[in-house]
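Please decode residue identities from the backbone states below.
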């Protein structure tokens, strides 16, 4: 049973919202956790082969000049495929990152074995009193140590990994020893009203 504290936490910056509309990844950041410890990180800009909009430049701070000298998406994603191996994956609003991961891997005929869990959906169940579940708002709400950088891939994946570990810690304090990855997936899909019951079933 895979432990929830041994995962790859990842984040993409992209040219837009949908790979189906021709959008591409422009930065990937990831943190590799083993037994709750950060053992490695991955961060790389990548050139999508076209200019990004001024909105995206302003939103991410990633400029066309920065991307001009960056390696291609294909090259970076091939390296990233090696980095993640068969580990399970976590992202904040995972459906977004999964869409881009799948689309970029498909372009280079690579795949992955790991499954995804969404820290945003888990947070909605475990931190029901939080005013918002946007990453920046949760970082402030839970007093997560940060350097104030948002919308850059490595900074966001580092903060997501801290959030993820805090939620696991919280579950352990409730008597759930070593929460499994599959339990976290289950939590994310359970209704807010019944999540307490689910957690009780897993307490020691």
């Amino acid at each position: 049973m895979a432990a929830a504290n041994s995962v790859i936490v990842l984040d993409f910056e992209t040219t837009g919202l949908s790979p189906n509309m021709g959008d591409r990844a422009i930065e990937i950041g990831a943190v590799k956790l083993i037994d709750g410890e950060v053992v490695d990180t991955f961060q790389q800009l990548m050139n999508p082969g076209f200019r990004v909009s001024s909105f995206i430049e302003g939103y991410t701070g990633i400029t066309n000049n920065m991307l001009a000298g960056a390696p291609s998406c294909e090259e970076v994603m091939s390296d990233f495929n090696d980095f993640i191996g068969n580990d399970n994956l976590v992202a904040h609003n995972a459906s977004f990152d999964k869409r881009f991961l799948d689309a970029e891997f498909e372009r280079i005929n690579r795949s992955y074995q790991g499954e995804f869990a969404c820290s945003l959906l888990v947070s909605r169940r475990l931190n029901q009193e939080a005013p918002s579940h946007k990453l920046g708002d949760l970082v402030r709400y839970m007093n997560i140590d940060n350097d104030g950088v948002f919308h850059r891939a490595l900074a966001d994946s580092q903060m997501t990994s801290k959030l993820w570990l805090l939620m696991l810690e919280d579950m352990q304090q409730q008597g759930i020893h070593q929460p499994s990855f599959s339990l976290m997936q289950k939590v994310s899909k359970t209704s807010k009203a019944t999540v307490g019951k689910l957690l009780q079933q897993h307490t020691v």
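Observation: The first strand starts at residue 8 and ends at 14.
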